[in-house]
Amino acid sequence: QVQLKESGPVLVQASETLSLTCTVSGFSLTNYGVIWVRQPPGKGLEWMGIIWRNGNTDYNSALKSRLSINRDTSKSQVFLKMNSLQTDDTAIYYCTRDPEGYGYYFDYWGQGVMVTVSS
Amino acid sequence: DIVMTQSPSSLAVSAGETVTINCKSSQSLLYSGNQKNYLAWYQQKPGQSPKLLIYWASTRQSGVPDRFIGSGSGTDFTLTISSVQAEDLAIYYCQQYYDTPPTFGAGTKLELK
Q1: Does residue B65 have a cis bond before it (omega within 30 degrees)?
Q2: Does B93 touch chain A if contact means CB atoms closer than 8 Å?
Q3: pLDDT tens digits, residue range B89-100?
Q4: Does A61 have pLDDT greater than 90?
Q5: Which residue in A66, A90, A105, B88 has its CB near the most CB atoms, within 10 A?
Q6: Contact A44 B107 (CB under 8 A)
Q7: Cβ-based neighbour number of residue B45 at 10 Å
Q8: What count of CB pairs under 8 Å joins A to B?
Q9: Contact B101 A45 (CB under 8 A)
Q10: Is A81 in CB contact (< 8 Å) with chain B?
Q11: DSSP per residue over B23-43, as a string?
Q12: Beta pairing partners, B44
């Protein structure tokens, strides 16, 4: 069955770089795009960026200067790196799947990883 | 970015009631080329990740009970939950995918009266 699972550090110091991994199973990264979405505690959802099935990427312009998304198709893993972290980057980070290949809506979600940025 | 405005922000209901959640977009989500509305609805229960309920404004995701009904077009959309059950208590989000970046509403919290 389709599964996504995020992993990475739960505590990061301000100004440092966040590195997260999304490990997927039940589908191929060459057939589906993967999106990162984050949710600050008690707040709404923010689309961060997508790595398309062809490996191209698009980012939220608000984060573009700090964010990069890559993948290793042989390991079924997608990587998020975001630098210059601030306390307002504290959030649950989710990876999700793009079912139609156009980055529209998101049908499967990981459990999320709570990342706290400490000053 | 397209702004999505949901109302109400919270709603207290009794089991068995029918509820309506509204979502308004700052520009039309109806694409004239295919007459589809680029809108989805998600349900997020406490401590869980969001779950896709509805896409293309009115198409239920596989396995979603038929008491969840999406409707609307253009800039005004509605999620109706008929005969609310205790398991439906959650936060509901609308999301547009007409333009990049996809954006979400702030959510509507469904609580038990």
Answers
A1: no
A2: yes
A3: 999 999 999 999
A4: yes
A5: A105
A6: yes
A7: 13
A8: 45
A9: no
A10: no
A11: EEESS--EETTTTEE-EEEEE
A12: B91
